[in-house]
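Let us begin with a simple case.
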Amino acid sequence: MRERMRFVLDYEEGLFEMRELAMQYGISRKTAYKWLERWEAEGVEGMGDRPPVAARVANRTEAELEGWFVEQRRCHESWGPKKLLVGSRINPPEVSHADSRCGGAEIPDSEVWLAGAT
């Protein structure tokens, strides 16, 4: 955070061009502009680290359906993703890790099934 603050102060002094500042701080120009945008929009709070996690997952399995898979997996421990697809309405790649997100047993890699695999 201190480095980012120094960067902003150096930029506001106007002694260096953006590319020179970016080179001095060992960052890309894209990152330099991002830091400035955050400074202008949020002030000091915008200079902190941010988690590298997406705010939302676009293709996340619905909670109700995820619960159904977890329940079926617990009742039928020998069933893998292929069998769990029967009666479900989601795409195959989403099945392979649905119950591990709910605290259930991790599906072994040997059972992970992706579309097109035999």
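The second case is a distinct protein. As before, the sequence precedes its structure tokens.
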Amino acid sequence: MRRSRRLGSTRGQDLPSWTACRPNKVERDRYGRIVGKIIFEGQDIDLAMVQAGYAWWYRKYAGEQNAGDRVLYEAVEAKAKTEHLGLWADPHPVPPWEWRKKKRASR
């Protein structure tokens, strides 16, 4: 777990234990990482994490979502921002893609 990012060490502690979760649709990205939508007991875990402010909705890949999911993810992220939940409690949250870019540049 990344501890150098805000919430990195507490993120998992605040969420229910979803160790039995399995992606219902699995693909691999260009780096060979597994990409999938995770449903556990009928709940979209990815959506729940965005809704709680523990994850970003990555707009770059919004085109890979169905239209309903795009609208839903955008709405719950906007609400989490408005309510200052999770990472949105930070006045200047840094998206993970920007954090990784800065980390690579500092090497």
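Helices lie at 45-51, 67-82, 96-105. Residues 11-105 form a domain with the OB fold (Dihydrolipoamide Acetyltransferase, E2P) fold (CATH 2.40.50.90).
Keep these points in mind for the review questions at the end of the chapter.
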